[in-house]
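Reviewers asked in the last cycle whether our approach scales beyond single polypeptides. To address this, we selected a multi-component target totalling 226 residues and predicted its structure end to end. The input consisted of the following lines:
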Amino acid sequence: MQAGGGCCQPISEAALDPNQAAEGATVFKALSDPIRLRLMSIIASANGEICVCDLTGQFDVSGPTISHHLRVLREAGLVDCERRGTWVYYWPVPDRLQWVSALLSIPEVAATR
Amino acid sequence: MQAGGGCCQPISEAALDPNQAAEGATVFKALSDPIRLRLMSIIASANGEICVCDLTGQFDVSGPTISHHLRVLREAGLVDCERRGTWVYYWPVPDRLQWVSALLSIPEVAATR
DNA sequence: ATCCTGTTTCGACAGACGTCAAGATAGACG
DNA sequence: CGTCTATCTTGACGTCTGTCGAAACAGGAT
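The resulting structure, written as C-alpha cells, was:
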C-alpha cells in the first residue's frame, strides 16, 4: 500500500512536501480524538485482536459513536477488521503505526547536535 | 510520567487511560492539519531555529493563518519561540516529539509476536 | 420464517476548526 | 516623536466533526 510508503525520513531530517504532509495529517487526525486514541491503544495492546463488544463497554458514548470512530481508524489504515459470525474483530496494522512513529522520531545524530 | 514528560509506554504495550489519551490527542490534533504538519517538519528540520518570515512564503495562506497554526503547535508543546528585534524565531521541542514518537513505537518483542 | 443480539449506516444538530480581513502590538530607524 | 515592517490578535463566516436516536443489516437461535 504504501501511501506514504514503507520507510520514510523523519521530519527532523527533511521537511515534508505538501503531499506527504497531507497523508501524514490524515493519520494524525485519526489519532486526534481522545476516544479514538484510546480505542487505538486498546486494540494495539490487545493480544492480536479484540471484539467490538469488548470495546463499547469501556466508553461513555453510544454504540454508533464507537462504530464511527472505528471507521475513522480503519480509513486511516491504522486498524483492520473482519466479521466472524455475530461479532466483529479489530486488530492493529503495525506497519502503519511504525510509519507514523518513524516520522516523528529523532535520529541520534540530530538529537545531539 | 508526566504529561509530556520523559518516557512512556507505547500503546502497543499498554492501553492508555482517559487522561493519557486526552493529553496525547491534543498533540496529535496539533499535527492533524497538513499546513501545521508541514510547518512542524520545516521547523524540525531547520538547523536550530527559523524565522517566521522564512515560513510564510512557503504557504498559500495568509500571515495570520500561519500565525494561528504556529500558536497551536506552541500550545501543544511541540515548538517554542522568541522575539528578537523585528523577527520571531521558532524551534522544535525534541522531548515532546520523541514522546509522541515513543507512544506509537512498536517494541521488537511486540512486533514479532 | 421469525425473533433477538451485535454492529453499522443515516439524518440531524451543536460545537469546534480553518480561513481571511481588519485592527493591534513590538521593535527598528529616522 | 512618527513611520515603517514584521507579527500577532480579534471578529466573522462557512465547513467539518462528534454525538445521538432511529433505522437498516448480518447472522445465530428458536
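Residues 1-5 of chain B have pLDDT under 50 and may be disordered. We regard this as preliminary and will revisit it once experimental data from Aim 1 are available.
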